[in-house]
Design goal:
Layout lengths: L17 H32 L9 H8 L2 H29 L3 H28 L16 H4 L1
Helix pairs in contact: 1-3, 3-4
């Protein structure tokens, strides 16, 4: 008499399952891809195609752009989505190529620290950027800094 394989499904704990997490990871990648495409192409168009092109990008250009909350939030959204999108892609590569559980855990941890660290540092740069530093060369500052002093 041969043993029949069990047709009973293994019990899955309630709540968030691994399969559900992978489904949402897949959905996240499909949603953020087109959003990032719009954010990045608009960013490139504004920075490179309007005005004097690449020669206009200097401290004053960035200072003038980040004086507007719209561009601060635009750049923050671009930063966060790009890092989460790229981090999720790297997570999938780690899952595919790191065959030892301990190595996978180390690489996932390093990736998480890098993604969170860059998001935090980038956010600080965007929102604490001083367009009119006190000791800066006046020729490098945007024109609205004269009104501040």
């Amino acid at each position: 008499m041969s043993a029949q394989p069990s047709t009973r499904q293994p019990r899955v704990p309630s709540g968030r399952t691994r399969r559900n997490a992978e489904k949402w990871s897949w959905v996240f990648m499909r949603v953020t891809g087109p959003v990032l495409l719009v954010l990045i192409l608009t960013h490139l168009f504004i920075n490179l195609m309007t005005g004097d092109g690449i020669s206009q990008i200097d401290f004053a250009f960035v200072a003038g752009k980040w004086a507007s909350p719209l561009w601060q939030w635009w750049d923050l959204l671009m930063l966060v989505l790009a890092l989460l999108h790229g981090g999720n892609g790297m997570r999938l590569l780690i899952n595919d190529y790191a065959h030892h559980a301990w190595l996978r855990k180390v690489l996932h941890s390093a990736l998480g620290v890098a993604v969170i660290g860059i998001i935090v540092l980038g956010s600080l740069v965007i929102f604490t950027f001083d367009a009119c530093p006190v000791d800066a060369d006046p020729s490098l500052l945007p024109s609205f800094c004269e009104d501040v002093r």
